[in-house]
Amino acid sequence: MLRGISTPVTLVTALGITTLVAAKSAFGEACDQSNTHLDGGSFQLVTDCNPTLYCADNSTCAYKGCRRDTYPFGYNDYAYDQLPPLCPEGQFCPDEGDQCRPQVPIGQRCQKDRDDECERPPNYRDLAGYLNTNGTICLSFTCYLANVTLGQTCVNDNTPYTAYNDNGDAYAFIVSRDDCANGLYCDATELRCMKNKAIGATCSGNKECLSYNCEADGRCGKAADAVIHPPAWQYVLIGLGIVVLIGGVMTGLWLMHRRTRKENQIKLEQYYNEQIAYRQSIMSMSHAKNSLLSLPPNTTPDYARQSLYRDDAAWSSATDPSLIPPNMRRDSVSGWSDTDKPSDMARADSEVLLMPDQRYSDAPESSRRPGNGREGW
Ligand SMILES: *[C@@H]1O[C@H](CO)[C@@H](O)[C@H](O)[C@H]1NC(C)=O
Ligand SMILES: *[C@@H]1O[C@H](CO)[C@@H](O)[C@H](O)[C@H]1NC(C)=O
Ligand SMILES: *[C@@H]1O[C@H](CO)[C@@H](O)[C@H](O)[C@H]1NC(C)=O
């Protein structure tokens, strides 16, 4: 049941927000001054108009005449020099942003948390602090000087902002402000200024601590922006870690490189050995040719033949001039054959087959495939 109800409720809420956002008026459109109010959760000013507009006295939306932030909300489509001007010193831009106004004296009205709307005192340098603006503070819509000393009566202003935890559940986040001088806080029950507490002292709110940080265990902790000083051993450890890491990477690279270098060395050695062997066989071939084809000095060809070929059956160009000398005889290396049959190819006394798929001469006409004959036509 509950789930069935909650879904439409969420839907309606979402739709309501959408219409609210969409219903913001553009320039010149009507707006209602009575709708201008502070948001209950964030205490921001809400109007009927777009963020770049305000609801003017004649109940139409008009362009803002000043800005408070260097980069204000809602001006995404504007160049920097198209933004409304910032206010000069001694003036302020109110939440509506209609125009710059002079700062108001102490005791007069100011807008929520707008300390900068109050006139700064002549001794503002002594009073200026982290929790006020140039020594002035706006508490309960009234300008105060943050000059109340130890033990004196002070003014407290607690604001419950709406905050959300990880689950999206809302809770109140209370910010407490007062007009005590720097180093003091306004005690909520006695309404007198007390000394701020050092780190480790018990506290019930941020403002009680000098560090402005009361931790969950009820003690003052370090300031949120406190500088962290790591101990010396951490520097040493990190330094050692960096050195070890660099050393490891370098060693790894060196080992890898060494292995590659070794491989390349072996390859090169093999290549050179091959080249040397090749060169040597060419040289021995050339030697053999020279020694066979050239006769020693003062030798007649007949004598050389006699010495070389004692056997009568041996070949000589004198006995068979149609043949070339055996050393020059080219083996039938190509292994050509007139037939395509592999058995014939295998019989060819050749070691190397050049163009094995082709035949030595053009195929004779008769070898045409029978199917392609003229009979078919
Ligand atoms: C309403 O007032 C604004 C601001 O003074 C002005 O810019 C705008 O023209 C006025 N609109 C009408 C309809 O008078
Ligand atoms: C506070 O005083 C400083 C120094 O004079 C000045 O620049 C700054 O505008 C003042 N702040 C406000 C909000 O008036
Ligand atoms: C704080 O300043 C106000 C306004 O100038 C003055 O009246 C008041 O006496 C001062 N309080 C202290 C404690 O100095």
Measure the end-to-end span. 91 Å
- Using only CA atoms, what is the Rg? 52 Å
Strand content: 5-15%
H/E series, N to C?
HEEEEEEHEEEEEEHHH
The average pLDDT value, as a whole number, equals 81
Low-confidence stretches: 1-20, 328-338, 344-377
**Biggest beta sheet summary:** 2 strands, antiparallel
Shape: elongated
Helix percent band: 25-40%
Small-molecule components bound? 2-acetamido-2-deoxy-beta-D-glucopyranose
Which strand order do you get reading across the main beta sheet? 1-2
Helix count, DSSP H or I runs of 4 or more residues: 5
**Tally of strands:** 12
What would you call the structural class? alpha+beta
Keywords: Membrane, Signal, Transmembrane, Transmembrane helix
Region (Disordered): 319-377
Signal peptide: 1-23
Transmembrane segments: 232-255
Model description:
This protein has five helices and twelve strands. It has 377 residues and is α+β, with helices and mostly antiparallel strands. A two-stranded antiparallel ribbon has the order 1-2. The protein has a two-stranded antiparallel ribbon with strand order 3-4. The protein is elongated. The N terminus and C terminus are likely disordered. The site of one 2-acetamido-2-deoxy-beta-D-glucopyranose has 6 residues, from loops. One 2-acetamido-2-deoxy-beta-D-glucopyranose binds next to loops. Keywords: Membrane, Signal, Transmembrane, Transmembrane helix.
